[in-house]
Amino acid sequence: MTGAVVAPPTELLAELGDLKRIRVADRRGSLAEQGFLRAWAALVAGADPAAVALHETARALAATRLSAIDAEVLCAGGMDRQGATAVLRRTVRDVADDAGLVLADALAQAVAAAPQLRDPPSFAALLCTQPRAGATAPGRPRIVLEPAESHGDHCFVVAVYAVLLAPGYGAEPGACFLGGLAHHLHNAGMPDAGFAGEAILGSELESIMTAFRERALEQLQRPLRECTRAAARHALEIETAEGRAVVAADVLDRVLQMRHFERVAAFTLDEALDELELVHSGPLQAYGNATVSAAGLR
Question: Fewest beta carbons within 10 Å, which of 18, 151, 210, 216?
Answer without folding.
Answer: 210
